[in-house]
Amino acid sequence: MTGPHTDKRQAILDTALDLFCERGFHGTPTSMITREAGVATGTLFHYFRTKEALIETLYLDIKGEMREALYAHIETKDPIRAQIQRICANYIRWGAENPRKFQFMEQFCNAPQISAHAHEEGMAQFTFVHDIVRRGIDEGVLKPHPLGLQFAMFGASTAAVVRLILSRAGREAIDPLMDEAFDLIWDGIAAPAADQ
Amino acid sequence: MTGPHTDKRQAILDTALDLFCERGFHGTPTSMITREAGVATGTLFHYFRTKEALIETLYLDIKGEMREALYAHIETKDPIRAQIQRICANYIRWGAENPRKFQFMEQFCNAPQISAHAHEEGMAQFTFVHDIVRRGIDEGVLKPHPLGLQFAMFGASTAAVVRLILSRAGREAIDPLMDEAFDLIWDGIAAPAADQ
DNA sequence: ATCATAATAGACCGATTAGTCAATCTACCC
DNA sequence: GGGTAGATTGACTAATCGGTCTATTATGAT
Q1: Which is the CATH superfamily of the domain at A60-194?
Q2: Strand C positions within 7 A of protein Cβ atoms
Q3: Nearest Cβ partner for B189 among A27, A150, A184
Q4: Fewer CB atoms inside 10 A, N or C side of chain B?
Q5: For the structural domain made of A1-48, what CATH number should be given?
Q6: Measured on CA atoms in the order A15, A19, A22, A25, is the torsion positive or negative?
Q7: Is residue B184 a contact partner of residue A153, using CB atoms and an 8 Å limit?
Q8: d(CA A159, CA A129)
Q9: Neighbouring C-alpha atoms within 13 Å toward the C-beta of B18
Q10: Tens of pLDDT along B12-65?
Q11: Does A188 contact B157 at a Cβ distance shorter than 8 Å?
Q12: Where are the domains of chain B?
């Protein structure tokens, strides 16, 4: 799987991730990507038809990786609270361990440079979170507010915690902050009598 | 205040706001801005020294405007809960009524194209929110979590509500959603006994 | 009427861009 | 060793970019 083939392609993707984060899409010339990656300009366009195709591949790769991370150790049989806590912890840990990829998603998850089709495909990966929230509402564990509202607040709050952790960059352990954050989030979305 | 002077300068700012939102900073040529605004290239560089100066002016203008909106009808003597509800409502209404400006702030509030100095100056406008949250924690009305965590969650949740409203673009009244959203946010950050 | 200053215009310039292309290199099969 | 398909290269191009410059017009004070 790691031949001279995969190496250069991956070097281009890795370099592009860094540069797009730091300088934006149009702010990063393809010539800069290839120079930093140590390949020729032609090599980039051998693997990716256009610059847009490159960022779209990057976007879908990372979104898939993120989905895998969020989904880890989720047991459908567990109570809703435990499942949501798991997702929350998975998200925060993934973000803290992959700051570049987290930053990339924040910057480009609504960017016009990425086709609407890719945005849809990326979103579709997270229906399992939607389903869990819906079940929580149906079972009366979560407040009966609109699903979209609950989902949006849950996602936004968790992302905010990651941002906060990254801005303090390793100056404190993340585990206690993670638990405190879940308490805040849970109290917001859970029905009064149901939080254990 | 509205001479032929202010007109063209404002036309450039208005057009730049739209185009930067739709296409990003580097994705928007100055020539496109001037064409859409109906002025000559020279006129843009008469009012703004560089393209960066243009976006920085836009950024600080909007951030100031936003601060004014958030601060409206805040009475220091009111209870903390009422003040936070007011800010929350002000924010959501401003975002719903100024979708372009809201989108611009989301996209560029951490963008590298805007100087660190301008970012600082922009942030400094919102210390009054910080102060209210701190007072809430001191008085025991809000949970004793770290100020940064409380502040981040409050801001992120409110922004998420605006995003939700904008994505549904006028298909429902915003007032009920606004109240529901505040309930969620408040239950998350408030101390158990203190939500009234 | 005169003059100074600011507003406006758009042709123009050097630098930079995304993407091409013909040529070479590498790896592997027979 | 001969052949083939894919990987790799970097000089090259047509187009576009941010910004300059000079010229012209509008405004207003005296």
Answers
A1: Tetracycline Repressor, domain 2 (1.10.357.10)
A2: 6-12, 16-22, 26-27
A3: A184
A4: N
A5: 1.10.10.60
A6: negative
A7: yes
A8: 15
A9: 10
A10: 999 999 999 999 999 999 999 999 999 999 999 999 999 999 999 999 999 999
A11: yes
A12: 1-48, 60-194
